[in-house]
Amino acid sequence: MRKRNLALDIFRGMTICLMIIVNNPGNGAERFSILRHCPWDGCTPTDLVFPFFLFCAGCAMAYSLAKFDSLSKEASLKILKRTGAIFLVGLMLNMFPFYPTKWNPELTAAQNWGHWISHIRILGVLQRIALSYALAAFITLAFKKKRAAVLGSVGVLCALHFGILMLFGDKGAQLELGHTVAERIDIAIFGENHVYHGYGVPFDPEGLLGVLTGACNALLGFLIGSMTRRYAEQDLAGEHPEKNVAATFFWGCVSLATAMTLSIWIPINKPLWSASYVFFTCGWGMIVLAFWSYIVDVLKVDKPLMPLKAFGMNALAMFALSGMTARIIGSVLKWNKAPIFDTPMLSLTYAVIFMLVHWCVAYILYRKRIVIIL
To answer: What is the DSSP string of 250-271?
Structure first.
């Protein structure tokens, strides 16, 4: 079981490493295409990073919630506390550095502060992780026959998500930007000023409707994590780890095939977090996890992978820290004044250096055996 945890830590470390790189390209208009998100339908390697993290969170649930047989008061409080902590950190990250960074000299101080408060984005990456984790965790503990119930829940949530999109979106354009019910739900609940505007219209890619399918990434991760625990319990001597690797790889291929089939009717779409996107990203997640499990469990290679383990042990904390650092650097260097990292190579160089600086922090925490649990 120790080796399984190590493989998961390495996978999670790889994920947060890539997440920091793709989120911090520096001030430049040009990036390599694989480091860009698809504008709408489709999936680049960058679009795999966020769902990988949810998949890892689901795998970890198979261990962190193992002592709970049912949805007890203790289990519920644990889930709610962690959900609240992650959501609050995400909200504070949106607010950081906690004062208006764009000051309009034509307005009074009170008006500037009022404008800033009235335009704080409520949702975000950590908020999606928190809510999806909560939904997935409650589902896994609510049923006795977990494997069948969890798999059935994935089907129900995906069908419910697609049904809501098709029934309540603009007829004939339910899956098109500016016409989906997903954006209307967030605007109705939070207000137009409190959602993301990066698509040119008020649409939040981490909106509430996507929590349904975001939870499916965690649920499928839970199934893989539970399978790995069973293999570990059956193979106490650790003599046949290749069985778990093969099974994880097999189910990854099944998930990818499911995604390709669903994509005939439901496009692979990250902003909407479509059902086909769930199976596509989880399929690749299973295959990547199988790869790391093969390296760690079968080939017995672990020391060279310590840098990824260091990141993986404090993944959420490093993501939050990188977000604050980026805001501070942006304020000091005044990114909006002139493009600095305006070629793909310069942008990538900045992103890698930015990531390595945060790895140094993660390594210090790792050496001191400090794990910050959000």
So the answer is: HHHHHHHHHHHHHTTTS--BTT
- What pTM value is reported for the model? 0.92
At 25, give phi and psi (nearest 5°): -85, 0
- Give the up-direction half-sphere exposure of residue 339: CA atoms within 13 A in the CB hemisphere: 11
Q: Which residues contact 188 (CB under 8 A, 6 or more apart)?
A: none
Q: How many residues does the chain have?
A: 374
In the block, tokens 């993986």 appear at 312
- What DSSP letter does each residue of 96-152 carry, written as one string? TTSS-SS--TTS-HHHHHHHHHTT-----HHHHHHHHHHHHHHHHHH-SSHHHHHHH
The confidence score (pLDDT) of residue 344 equals 86
C-alpha 16/C-alpha 32 separation (Å) is 19
Name residue 216's amino acid. C
Q: What does the pLDDT look like over 161-210, one tens digit per residue?
A: 999 999 999 999 999 999 999 999 999 999 999 999 989 899 999 999 99
3-class SS of residue 41: strand
Structure tokens at 62: 């198979």
Residues 316-330: pLDDT tens digits?
899 999 999 988 887
Phi, psi of 42 (to 5 degrees): 110, 180
Listed in sequence order, the residues at least 6 apart from 36 whose beta carbon sits closer than 8 Å to its beta carbon are: 44, 46
Number of C-beta neighbours around residue 90 at 10 A: 27
Give me the half-sphere count of Cα atoms (radius 13 Å) on the Cβ side of residue 315. 26
Exposed e or buried b for every residue in 252-274, given b needs 16+ CB within 10 A? beebbebbeebbeebbbbbbbbb
